[in-house]
Design goal:
heterotetramer; A: Serine Threonine Protein Phosphatase 5, Tetratricopeptide repeat; 0% strand; globular; B: alpha/beta; Rossmann fold; 6-stranded mixed sheet; 12 strands; binds adenosine-5'-diphosphate; binds magnesium ion
Chain lengths: 207, 331, 331, 207
């Protein structure tokens, strides 16, 4: 596969939903340690709603798929993750316009727009111990790649490293920041769900 | 996890049905999107006052909908801020032409969801002002973090702004008053036990049989530090000192003292604690002119308490004393 | 045992100091013997209404002292009925010349202590009538036992008799009305967790992680039976069926539905339960005309609830609706 | 000792107080099982108050000692035990009049009056699983005795047997009666404290 199609985007979202459902408890546990324990439940509920929305209509192109997911997340997730993932998919989907096939450079640029949306919304910088710490390296790897498949695999790996690198950090954004130094030695739940976003992209689009 | 519920993901909806069944004479309930609204909303010419936040803090916010307090409340899932569509619909439902105030507790999720809603609300020609509460002195206030949490003062903002809105004050006046209340209020909480959200089924943290957590948030977020439990006098000191030093409160200040239960603490203990709070206030030369004691902003079945002090001015006292008729607060 | 207290044997006194500090504008507190009394007592020409019982059930009874409800309350030690000298002094303090009604929950200790007080009260020329509450259908009613416990209906008796006394009704009228309310009310409770009295430091009973106790009393007395926890709908059924069958309530009855928390159960769960109660009432053809939801007669930090149904008549409705201004109940 | 004097009565009450203080936890435990767990705390508090009252004044005779204890218990114990023990000591003390020395027949008759007071107040019969089940055999043994020392020892033993015999009973009075059949297989707390009343009498008066 050298481009992302509508069906590819749908498959990506299905995989993302099942990753979240499968790792729901893990995300709850991570969020219980440094937050309020709802990250897994909320994203799982949101992506179920998103799949319902996707199943309930026809999406013409990858951009519409992502914007549909965005709206479902915004109106069903709540918390920090709702607006952040909602904004991410909205910006990314908008960047894709109504293209029916998306090649690597355009796909990477859309991820970049999504990342910018997250940072605009949440004001987090690299190192603040948030989902941004998985997004930045993941998007960077995609931009640096020369083919979609390799780019997706590199991005997954980079996001995983970014996720793991959140562990020693002191949180400066979100609920974990209330803990100050005590937020150290815990992996960030949002960075973890973002890793699953890259993982599911690689598994569904790098076939 | 043992709870009086039907299913973890039905808690909020089922409770809303209960609210409608119980208080249908005073409020209406919308289920999708979910919000509780005054029966007579929108009140023409009155500033609308809405709030919202995760469920599990009852009676806040749904219990504060009624004459003299909120026009509407948007409940999120347990401990999860609500979504923009709830806020947008609630805003429309309470807009009587004089604009709408959003009372928002300073949590990343709440702030972002309300921001999205406010953007969209403006788009529909409704003027929206936001009052952000961030009174929790347990959290360090810094530009480089998410800042302080909004806790106990939120209840006071809702009551006082509700009184002002009912009195016909303008959008800016109500919002300014709310900001003044927030600026003059400080809180801190502690827990004896954790709570369990229906969604996770697990305690939010673990505490030893003789430990307490000082500086806890209302979502079971861990606090500032842990220590062996001491007498109520010591616990009052632990909470009062940071509060008093922060504003700072000074001798001669008139204050409202709010001793709040986290949900699982018996009222008799809150009165024991209030007695210690009153002693400390007296030592510091504060005059407690109003008080509130009970479970008003809770954290499910958590055992523990929070203390909020508000430095009063005449306008605050006037609107605090103004009649209120809600399921959760009434006089 | 983790509690917000200074010392186990100081809890009641410390809490009374807190009550005085908080509500000194409405009540006075006597410490030896211990009772809480309306600031303006005795009200000349008005029937005095007093109650009392062990502490640990707050806001009952001390929180119900004020205009439109009790004239005085006598708190015993935690879960221990108060002593005759408290009742005698309280009786004298509220006697405005029209006699005094004692509201007594049917527990051996309460009954005997009030009996001794009433004997002595009469000796001083004060006319005393006693209203005994015994609404708990979890307990078998038999001449050969101590009979049923007085639980939730006590709050309703205190409110309704308080309204009648305020309205100038005579001693016999107030007492008769109280007896009618008791006769028309039925309750049953359940627990998810035990409570721990400060004195014993030990849980009142043990329950497995998935068990509930049905038919519990408000002192942690074990109930009718244990079972695996079911959904709120099942718990409502378990409590409602014996209540409905006992009076019995029948289609067309107008009722007050009172869903009470035992102290440690979050309000959101009480609303989930209320929704189930309302459904069952509807199926049975009852019309819920008034309701009360919250922690009004508690068992320290116990998690659980009780349901009380009261078959209403016009006079009860009138005095239920009458204004009340107490720390625990106000409208 | 062949009579009960003022000092003997004082010693009895001190012993009773220390038995209760020593067995406070046991009484709490027994009352937790079938009641509300306050029997030990309440009687311990009450007898401390009673000793304070006794120390704070001069009592002319055994009857006055017991009546002083009665009033202290009535106004400090509460619950069922307050009026019951209060009535017991009041009736017993009144029966002793102002005698300064009390011999066995008069002493036994006074116990009988106390027992009658308890039954008048609480309406309990033998077999209802209450303190009456220790009182009846204890008083009976005292009445049947021919000397004070032997009578007190026999009464202690009879009360102990009465106390133990409450275990299989179903309670019909007091808080334990709410349990119905489930009150079986537990020794009654009130019968237990009454056994200590006899025990302390034997230890202080049968010297
Ligand atoms: N300002 C922010 N910018 C980016 N990501 C954030 C920000 N605040 C929080 N997050 C992410 O959100 C995650 C928590 O999400 P969630 O648990 O759903 O929200 P909440 O904290 O409202 O319960 C954090 O782990 C973090 O990765
Ligand atoms: N009606 C009664 N007559 C005699 N003794 C009684 C009666 N009711 C209760 N008791 C005794 O009182 C004991 C309980 O006393 P206590 O725990 O102090 O009172 P409460 O039940 O009010 O908490 C019981 O074990 C029983 O022996
Ligand atoms: Mg979270
Ligand atoms: Mg959350
Ligand atoms: Mg008792
Ligand atoms: Mg007892």
């Amino acid at each position: 596969m050298v481009t992302v199609t509508r069906d590819g985007a749908l498959e990506w979202m299905r995989r993302f939903a099942s990753e979240l459902s499968e790792h729901r408890e893990q995300l709850v546990r991570l969020d219980t340690a440094i937050g309020d324990g709802d990250h897994g439940t909320n994203l799982d509920r949101g992506m179920r709603k998103a799949l319902e929305k996707l199943d309930g209509g026809e999406q013409a192109d990858p951009g519409t798929v992502l914007k549909t997911v965005a709206m479902a997340l915004v109106s069903s997730v709540g918390g920090a993750a709702g607006p952040l993932y909602g904004t991410f998919f909205l910006q990314m989907g908008s960047a894709l316009g109504s293209d029916s096939e998306v090649d690597l450079p355009r796909f990477a640029a859309a991820w970049r727009k999504g990342l910018e949306g997250v940072q605009m919304r949440g004001k987090a910088e690299a190192g603040d111990k948030t989902m941004v710490d998985a997004l930045i390296p993941g998007v960077g790897a995609l931009e640096a790649a020369s083919d979609l498949e390799g780019g997706l695999r590199a991005a997954e790996q980079a996001a995983e490293e970014g996720m793991k690198a959140t562990t020693p950090l002191v949180a400066r954004k979100g609920r974990a920041s209330y803990l100050g130094e005590r937020s150290k030695d815990h992996q960030d739940p949002g960075a973890t769900s973002t890793y699953y976003l890259f993982k599911s992209a690689a598994e569904s689009l790098a076939g | 996890m043992k709870k009086l519920i039907n299913a973890p993901d039905a808690v909020v909806q089922d409770a809303l049905h209960g609210v409608e069944a119980a208080h249908g004479d005073r409020v209406r309930v919308s289920y999708d999107p979910a919000y509780v609204v005054r029966r007579d909303a929108p009140v023409q010419g009155k500033v609308g006052l809405i709030s919202g936040g995760g469920s599990g803090h009852e009676p806040m916010h749904g219990g504060y909908v009624g004459v003299g307090m909120l026009d509407a409340a948007c409940p999120g899932e347990v401990f999860t801020s609500p979504t923009p569509d709830q806020m947008i619909e609630a805003t429309k439902a309470v807009n009587g032409g004089a604009g709408v105030v959003h009372v928002v507790k300073n949590y990343t999720g709440d702030v972002m969801n309300f921001e999205m809603a406010a953007d969209l609300g403006k788009g529909e020609g409704i003027e929206v002002e936001t009052v952000l509460t961030n009174d929790d002195v347990a959290v360090e206030d810094s530009l480089y973090t998410a800042g302080r949490r909004g806790v106990g003062v939120t209840v006071l903002v809702e009551k006082i702004c509700g009184g002002a809105a009912e009195d016909g004050r303008s959008l800016n006046e109500v919002a300014e008053l709310g900001r003044r209340v927030n600026a003059a209020g400080r809180s801190m909480g502690m827990a004896l036990t954790p709570c369990i959200t229906p969604g996770s089924g697990e305690p939010s943290f673990e505490l030893a049989e003789d430990e307490v957590e000082i500086g806890i948030g209302i979502h079971g977020e861990p606090g500032r530090f842990r220590e062996k439990i001491g007498p109520a006098s010591q616990i009052a000191e632990r909470l009062m000192t940071p509060i008093l030093d922060d504003l700072p409160f000074s001798s001669g200040d008139r204050v409202l003292a709010f001793v709040n239960g986290m949900g699982g603490t018996p009222l008799i203990e809150l009165y024991v604690l209030y007695n210690e709070v009153a002693k400390i206030a007296q030592q510091r030369g504060l005059s407690i002119e109003r008080n509130l004691i009970g479970n008003f902003i809770t954290s499910l079945e958590m055992q523990g308490c929070s203390i909020t002090l508000l430095r009063l001015d005449d306008e605050m006292v006037r609107y605090w004393d103004a009649p209120v008729n809600t399921p959760g607060l009434r006089w």
